[in-house]
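Help!! Second protein's tokens look totally different from the first
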Amino acid sequence: MRACLLAALLALPPVAAQDAPPSLPFPGLLKQAEREAGNPLATYAAMLEQEAQYRASPVFAQIYPEVRLNYEEFLGVPEAGVQAMSLPALRSAPPAGEQAIPGGFAPVPAVDAIARAAAATRLVIFGEEHHLPQTRCLYDALLRRLWDLGYRWLAAETFAPEVMEDGFRVPDYHSGYYTMDPVFASAVRTARELGYRLVAYDTSERGPPGDGSFRDRTQAQNLKRLVFDVDPGAKLLVFAGRGHAAEVPPADGWTPMASVLKQITGIDPFTVFAPTMSERSTREEEDPLYRYATAHGLVKEPVVFVGGDERWIGSGNCDAYVFWPRVQLVDGRPDWMGSSMGRRRTAIPAELQRGDGLRLVQAFLAGEPGSAVPVDQVLLRPGLPLPVLMLPPGTYWLRALGAQAMVAGPVDAKVE
């Protein structure tokens, strides 16, 4: 819920959103015009300049670290997501030791397992981890496989209503909060190329006091109205946030979006949960099943553990967990960008390396504007080794930005 609150707050005036003094707006609204024009580094640099004030603020002290790490994730800082998962609001404390994978279950490539299950339903709900771009690395492949199975609708919790407009073509800084992540934005491009109909289903309405399920009920009702009432035979893929993908309500009385959608449509969804079985800053924060599976070489790629009769290892609230490989950095970038997404390591041209201070190198598809979310971007930080760009084959134009303006470029590049 916290991460989703960020998206709602971004759409509100900073003073009204938090009753904060005008001198200290919500951090994601700093340098908003510059960000919307294509320079998220301007917002991030402004956060760093005012960090001491935010950390001392009773309004923002708790939320500021998450927002800062969100932006670092968007800017290609590889360690930011795992660091975020250790923040007090997100840190887990599972039992010690390892728990063996139950007998009869074997790892199956995640996209293959999800596609098999998707063929038996008309509704797939994927619960991502907002702070881990790795949990989005299968989106492109999943969209293609489900398209072949007749899926024509894509809904995402993060989408802004603009994605449903006839003129929408390229993801930009109005398309949604988490689509500022280039990995997510690339999936949106894939969906548009294939012909998916995009659906924004979240709500910023506030429910009655004490009604913790209002948002989820509204999300589900929006999906029914926007998709299944329009196309009764629709096949729908949903990218939801975390536990909103749970089709079995937890014992605390909360009714997650997926559980409500299942009830009001009569469709039994295949629900996937991505956050739990992933790497953390320390082994103590990791699930015992994950410790065992990775220690025994069972997670060489993103996998779902499948048993006989199409059973899966899941959470009890969702059908299946995705187990993610531990991340290795190669030239300053996570290895899953190559192994799971098919991207190529691409050196930053010499003319874009020059300069002092924080700089952001961005790569755009040829023909796309600089206001789009780039295909990839990477932060150049003083004193740290130079990273590479990770790009799929194609033709691009590249630039380097400072906090105030473009400092080098554009440079044309082609990746074979």
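Here's the second one for comparison:
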Amino acid sequence: MPRSKDYHDYLIRSLKDPARAREYLNAALEDSDARVFLVALRNVAEAHGGIAKVAGGTKLNRDRLVRMLSGKGDPGLRSLGAVLSSLGFRLAIQSRDAA
């Protein structure tokens, strides 16, 4: 009997593709619970070299970044923008009609 694939490993591999990561983050933003987006952002960070690498691309220390992306964090707009920027993304606003 073939072994099943570990979903987390599969997810992390798939999020290495910037287009998939973008869609994944956008889907997480659709959830009314902000923690869903923070966990999704942590998964994308893991896929793109890990928290330490992402922290190196921001002015945040690693421990603060781990807390921020824990699902219990409450990042400020500047911190969130720095993390997204280090992953190659940016914040954008669009009308609901455009979705």
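Reply: Different proteins will give different token patterns, so don't panic. Residues 7-91 form one domain.
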